[in-house]
Input
Amino acid sequence: MFESAELGHKIDKATYDAEVPKLREALLDAQFELAQKAKFPVIILIGGVDGSGRGDTVNLLNEWMDPRHVQTHGMGDPSDEELDRPMMWRFWRELPPKGKIGLFLGSWYTWPILNRVHGVTKVAELEQSMERARRLEKMLTDEGALIIKFWLHLSKEKQEARLTLLEENPKTRWRVTKRDWEHFRLYDKFRTVHENVIRHTNTAEAPWIIVEGAEARYRSLTVGKVILEAMRKRLQEEKVVKRHNEPHAIPLLPSIDKLHILNSLDLTQTIEKKTFEDKLEKYQGKLALLTRHPRFKNITVIVVFEGNDAAGKGGAIRRITSAVEARHYQVVPIAAPTEEERAQPYLWRFWRQIPRKGRLTIFDRSWYGRVLVERVEGFCSQADWMRAYHEINDFEAQLARHNIVVVKFWLTISKDEQLRRFEERVSRH
Amino acid sequence: MFESAELGHKIDKATYDAEVPKLREALLDAQFELAQKAKFPVIILIGGVDGSGRGDTVNLLNEWMDPRHVQTHGMGDPSDEELDRPMMWRFWRELPPKGKIGLFLGSWYTWPILNRVHGVTKVAELEQSMERARRLEKMLTDEGALIIKFWLHLSKEKQEARLTLLEENPKTRWRVTKRDWEHFRLYDKFRTVHENVIRHTNTAEAPWIIVEGAEARYRSLTVGKVILEAMRKRLQEEKVVKRHNEPHAIPLLPSIDKLHILNSLDLTQTIEKKTFEDKLEKYQGKLALLTRHPRFKNITVIVVFEGNDAAGKGGAIRRITSAVEARHYQVVPIAAPTEEERAQPYLWRFWRQIPRKGRLTIFDRSWYGRVLVERVEGFCSQADWMRAYHEINDFEAQLARHNIVVVKFWLTISKDEQLRRFEERVSRH
Output
């Protein structure tokens, strides 16, 4: 797989010096157009082996472009706030909004690769991580993001030569760490894992660009030109015609026997006032004890309420919150997204509300809005709400994998009962 | 000072039961009006001695009001991301936006009080903290926030009785910690510090409401009623007439001899191209070494660029960034505030950009916009931009006190030179 990046690619200085000024100007123009229109974000991952010039490339891109509209993220060790959340949370919080470029040195590939090479995980787990990466990238590109993934490669010989060279020069010696040499000794292992990862995540919407990293001029010019062409193409598409991302729509028929879960419910069920009060007290007491348990400090709880208007979400939420210490919960009412939220993928506004451990977050309406109100009111296209079903599954799977307790309620009432409650509300005012 | 909160205030059950439903309804109405208009945020601090019912009060307020528009913050130990920034950062990030209520159990008073009682700081330092708290609250109220500060008090006897009672009941035993008894033994010391703090921070715009905490009904009803009245009054004011917060404006005369710093500068200075290139290389090299120094991990650098349009801010910024690893800096261009930023005090959008340690943040235009473009274009009132001068000083003092390196540049060019550059830009496109 890496053969084409071991050919000894080179660009001579004269060519480079002639090309760079044109490239810079074109990049600045593309960046300016991107910022003006703010129709999509650009997410650039710079992966690769140690010594392949990842840092230099990122520095150079910042120099060539307008750094005011580029956000560079090293993504080193996670903070304690990040460790409290699912792994992807730290990437969600750094996603560039529409019109900006995000450059990621560490990415959702970094830790799965390291864990596999060091034997912390098995191949199956690595492949699961890759499946998740693929789905994340699919979602981001469906939301309009332009993703460009670079893999800077060095042959074993070139890596050794590069590290030695850096170490011999007193000015660059600081850049070679013990870990770089450790990684060099694991070169073959890394190579196998890298090949596996690239093969599994080389998708149509977010392909890997493998670049030989040994020679700086070739590497820099290649990366710069790919970014330029990718941006130009997308800006051009936006100009000519709205991207055609409607799938071949499968007609959605209502169940042919008219039976579905909601109309099969018995909506006449009641509970005695006395029984209700006794049980409420009993379960509120249990909830109070559980959220005060010392081990609650290590648990995150997410509760979702959906249902018809006037179905009683507010009342149900208050019965939970009155049993829990106020500093341990937050209620997030979902209304229209803010301007900053509209500049991000649909799920961003929910990711930003994922709490730290030891807290309970209650969503009054939720990410299901996409397949409910937004679908019904026509706020998003059929393609958008159809893909939301599996995006939501992916999102919730990430929460569950992080051992977050996710509880979802659907409160339903009949049409007549809803009308009755609406009229009651009106008469009360 | 606490005498009136040691009288044994009590409300009988019948009165309480009659009052609460009316109070709840009125609070919900006020909260609804607040959310609808979203003209100002409500910041409620619940301070007081241990065992005085702070937690219970906060829980009850959440029960009485609509928890979807209340944000409760325990403010326990700071996270590592918070420790990397000035102390106030963690409060800024939790400030409620306009239309919402923020309930703070821990506040900017908590740590200064504890540090003083435990002898970590001297009286002078406590008083400096209080001065800062006063200025913060002044700024928040000037920005329109409604601040309500409660102090729940218990006499020494009542505190002992309360802690004993809680400990005897198996259901509430968990609430009494070792630290509570330690604090009880320090009661007199705490009382002296509390009196000092309250006296110094009992201002017209954010006075302390001292409430006897011993009896729950009295305490709850008092707190609830004060909040209701304070909210009603502010909502009413907003209705009748815009708050008159223009100070007696002192006429701002230009210097009578027409001499000021900008027109006294020699704008004809030049530098030889060769000298420039040599020096640029030398200083970029120094900067590169410094930001790669192991101790840079513990340093935060904030660089601000202001000046005329076309004065060369962009070029100057690029000369800095090209010497620094891209993952160590970010450039923040200041344009029009977003919707979320407009729902917060003016300085909030800058506070949110304060980086962690080991990073350099460059502001391309800054908080000085208030006294520059916003003043000149008339985007804010004279009162607003006049108070910005000392608010900015307070803000920068907090950065400096946290050992953040703050460097500010003003780039100036003559009117003729500016025109020339504008024309040059036009002709280039």
